[in-house]
Automatic annotation (TrEMBL):
Location of this chain's protein in the cell: Cytoplasm
UniProt-listed GO biological process terms: protein quality control for misfolded or incompletely synthesized proteins; rescue of stalled ribosome
Keyword list, A-Z: Cytoplasm, Hydrolase, RNA-binding, tRNA-binding
Name of the protein this chain belongs to: Peptidyl-tRNA hydrolase
Enzyme class: hydrolase
Organism (species): Zobellella taiwanensis
Residues the UniProt record annotates as site (Stabilizes the basic form of H active site to accept a proton): 95
Function according to Swiss-Prot or TrEMBL: Catalyzes the release of premature peptidyl moieties from peptidyl-tRNA molecules trapped in stalled 50S ribosomal subunits, and thus maintains levels of free tRNAs and 50S ribosomes.
Main location: cytoplasm
Positions annotated as active site in the UniProt record: 22
Catalytic activity: an N-acyl-L-alpha-aminoacyl-tRNA + H2O = an N-acyl-L-amino acid + a tRNA + H(+)
GO MF annotation terms: peptidyl-tRNA hydrolase activity; tRNA binding
Self-association and partners: Monomer.
Annotated positions binding tRNA: 17, 68, 70, 116
Amino acid sequence: MHPIELIVGLGNPGPEYAHTRHNAGAWYVTELARLHGAQLREEGKFFGWTGRVRIANRDVRLLIPATFMNRSGKAVAALANFYQIPPEAILVAHDELDLPPGSARFKQGGGHGGHNGLRDIIGCLGNNKDFYRLRLGIGHPGHKSQVAGFVLTKAPATEQSLLDATVDEAVRATDILFSDGMTRAMNRLHAFNADSTK
């Protein structure tokens, strides 16, 4: 496994989107920065909010694109190209319709699954799909025609508490990823279900 050098949290910019389901990846990077005492600052040349943290004695860059979701790759490619970070050293956190709220998964590679942020990142990285993903479950509204409205609305309070617990657990699993490797981190995160911890 290539050591991860960049962690990206996907979302849409602006206060009207800050608490919508589509911003789950951005919540995760915000929490990661907070727990590691890092400030995220807007950086124009990277089209996003960036910061640096040390996790298990490794230097890691953080990025939340300030572009809209479907242009996420512009920010990721700008930062990755500038610091010569290969796709295999990038972890992208995003909302995942195919997982229920309260669960999350790590994976490497794969397609975009209809996610506009992942689609644009793959394209901007020269169609390289080998970056890692942190899939934060938000559930599915039941029909594909409802997806756009679903991801751009706030979750009800009971569901939001599951999402918050999952983000918290994902941050802890990230520390394990850096100290003990992906397999241990996956074992921890994939066994977690916020719904059963109530």
